[in-house]
Design a protein that fits this description.
Elements: E1 9-14, E2 23-28, E3 37-46, H1 49-55, E4 74-81, E5 97-100, H2 112-115, E6 148-152, E7 157-158, H3 165-168, H4 174-185, E8 192-196, H5 201-212, E9 216-221, H6 224-232, E10 238-241, H7 247-257, E11 268-273, H8 278-287, E12 288-296, H9 308-312, E13 317-320, H10 326-339, E14 345-348, H11 353-360, E15 367-371
Parallel strand pairs: 8-9, 8-11, 9-10, 11-12, 12-13, 14-15
Antiparallel strand pairs: 1-2, 3-4, 3-6, 3-15, 4-5, 5-7
Helix pairs in contact: 4-5, 7-8
């Protein structure tokens, strides 16, 4: 089943050292390493905050070597399978379009993570996105800022017909991450959630997912462009400028609107914290009612300061959320297709990746995507 008409070389943007621009190089086409592998022609590759963190040297020992091809959220067209594809790979055929997230390339299948099926987002015995022995596309191994990439058939998902590769690429990290965080809130229709950092890459998708789930949604940001983006989505979520609104006063207003007189029951059922700023974390915690849950997605190098009083006297639970399993990935794609959840994105050619990075640091919100057709 190997494809015989593939070129021998490809263009790729590589990191050659920390804190240096990407360099456009010509490299050999990657080879399949196991019967689980698929070779895809990358159609679109999205830039993530983690790419910036990795490039700055804050995720050592990753990448394990240079040159390194980043990007852990991409989508493309299958061009080759192994001569003896595994059962997982046999589900796919040449020409199909798939989304490729970063995690769980070649999980070991035998560690406690791979054998644990009790978690909410577990897949099946022998496979886990939390396997510490697995490779991570774009982080511990080469990723999607290249014309071709090798992925594990067990980690990808077919794209619904209504979702293009450019639309799918941001969903492979930003989409699955915020969708998984919303699931970890464990809320029912009609309950309330706050999304701190609502105008960013994850946040603006979170507003769309949360409102489509039937949740009363509050979006919070503290910069003009992200706030404008959040408001422009028309989701029906209330958008709050944290620079001009006090969290405690906001809780009082929410309580009054709900005809609630007990301060302990005023506020939100859950918040999701996306920014790395302590002020964002504090704002989110202040919005929670007693027994609420704070889902932390960001991972600032210095961490967050947590008030023990919030944990003890208000019974606030703080949990982290990384991504979601392959089943959750497929669920998210179907949900996005059904409800029209789309990333607001700006596209660049592969050769323009450094310009994309410059645009990213302007923090205008939304997602930035390399479109290989440009």
């Amino acid at each position: 089943m190997a494809e015989t008409t593939l070129p021998k070389e490809m263009k790729a943007q590589v990191l050659e050292a920390f804190n240096q621009p990407y360099a456009l190089k010509t490299l050999p086409i990657p080879q399949l390493a196991s019967n689980d592998d698929l070779l895809i022609k990358v159609d679109a590759a999205s830039y993530c905050h983690t790419d910036a963190v990795l490039a700055s040297g804050q995720m050592r020992p990753n990448p394990p070597s240079f040159p390194h091809i980043s990007c852990h959220e991409f989508a493309g067209t299958i061009v080759s399978l192994s001569d003896s594809p595994s059962p997982a790979a046999k589900q796919y055929r040449v020409g199909q379009k798939v989304g490729a997230p970063g995690r769980a390339y070649h999980p070991c299948g035998t560690c406690f993570e791979c054998l644990d099926t009790t978690r909410q987002d577990s897949d099946y015995v022998g496979y886990s996105v939390y396997c510490s022995n697995a490779g991570n596309n774009g982080i511990s191994r080469n990723g999607g800022f290249s014309e071709y990439a090798v992925v594990d058939a067990r980690q990808v998902a077919l794209l619904p017909e209504s979702i293009t590769p450019v639309g799918a690429a941001p969903l492979m990290c930003a989409g699955i991450t915020i969708f998984g965080a919303l699931k970890r809130c464990n809320l029912s229709r009609g309950q309330s959630v706050g999304i701190i950092g609502a105008g960013g890459g994850l946040g603006h998708l979170g507003l769309q997912f949360a409102t489509a789930m039937g949740l009363k949604t509050l979006g919070v940001d503290a910069a003009d462009a992200p706030l404008q983006l959040a408001k422009s989505l028309g989701t029906g979520a209330e958008i709050i400028d944290a620079r001009s609104q006090n969290a405690e006063a906001l809780v009082q207003r929410l309580g009054k609107e709900a005809d609630e007189s007990n301060i302990a029951n005023m506020g939100l059922d859950a918040v999701i914290v996306l920014p790395e700023a302590q002020s964002g974390f504090d704002f989110g915690m202040a919005l929670l009612k007693h027994h609420g849950v704070c889902v932390v997605v960001s991972f600032p190098e210095a961490g967050f300061h947590v008030s023990a009083r919030d944990l003890v006297f208000r019974d606030i639970r703080i949990i982290g959320s990384l991504v979601g399993g392959n089943g959750t990935l497929r669920e998210m794609l179907e949900f996005a297709a059904e409800h029209g959840v789309k990333a607001v994105s700006k596209t660049f050619a592969l050769a323009e990746l450094n310009g994309l990075v410059e645009e990213y640091h302007k923090a205008a919100g939304g997602k930035l995507v390399v479109d290989m057709s440009v």
